[in-house]
Amino acid sequence: QLQLQESGPGLVKPSETLSLTCTVSGDSITTASNHWGWVRQPPGKGLEWIGSLYLRGRTFYNDSLKSRVTISVDTSKNQYSLTVTSVTAADTAVYYCAKQITNWFDPWGQGILVTVSS
Amino acid sequence: DIQMTQSPSSVSASVGDTVTIACRTSQDINNWLAWYQQRPGKAPRLLIYTASSLQSGVPSRFSGSGFGTDFSLTISSLQPEDFATYFCQQSHSFPYTFGQGTKLEI
């Protein structure tokens, strides 16, 4: 059964870099038909697509975050990662990783709350 | 960016009722629309994709319809576990965008 699990620090200081990892189990991250995404949800608010990782490492990002976001893959660990630089309080959110099937997300990881605060 | 507008923002219903949630997009997206359910403190769960296709394992009381810019999610014979927040998502073009959510309350 496919499972995704986010990990990383729950607290990041303003202006620093947020780094999260998504560990995939039950499927290979390198299978040609598999794509992988990141979505975030500020507390009490809606969902925001951050970006997606496609075959052969192609990535697509939300323009609202594009200059600060990088999604990368570590095939040896069956993981992919999210990095957001120069964070502010507006980046406080629950961050989800999810498998992207065609253009939909399923399943999702349980999510990890990242708070930006000094 | 394609704007997503869900209505209503919240709706009250009872077990056994039928409810319909609407989602309108700012541009024609063909049928590139999905619906998700999110229970409190949990991750979203895919219910419907391509506007009307039921995701595997999702009960048949959930159904979706629509094309172009107007879409709807209908839940018939509401069960206690259906009380949650529902989001629509377009994947016609980047950036993928979500509706603001509809909270289904008892």
Distance between the termini of chain B: 34 Å
Taking all residues together, what is the mean pLDDT of chain A? 94
**What share of residues of chain B is helical?**
under 10%
Which sheet architecture does the biggest sheet of chain B show? Answer: 7 strands, mixed
Instruction: Tell me roughly what share of residues is in helical segments of chain A.
Output: under 10%
Structural class of chain A: mainly beta
Number of helical stretches of at least 4 residues of chain A? 0
Largest interface, C-beta closer than 8 angstroms, per-chain residues: A-B, 23 and 21 residues
CA-based gyration radius of chain A: 13 Å
The helix-and-strand class of chain B reads mainly beta
Annotate the secondary structure layout:
The complex is a heterodimer of chains A (118) and B (106).
Chain A: E1 3-7, E2 11-12, E3 18-25, E4 35-41, E5 48-53, E6 59-61, E7 69-74, E8 79-84, E9 93-101, E10 104-108, E11 112-116
Parallel strand pairs in A: 2-11
Antiparallel strand pairs in A: 1-3, 3-8, 4-5, 4-9, 5-6, 7-8, 9-10, 9-11
Chain B: E1 4-7, E2 10-12, E3 19-25, E4 33-38, E5 45-49, E6 53-54, E7 62-67, E8 70-75, E9 85-90, E10 97-98, E11 102-105
Parallel strand pairs in B: 2-11
Antiparallel strand pairs in B: 1-3, 3-8, 4-5, 4-9, 5-6, 7-8, 9-10, 9-11
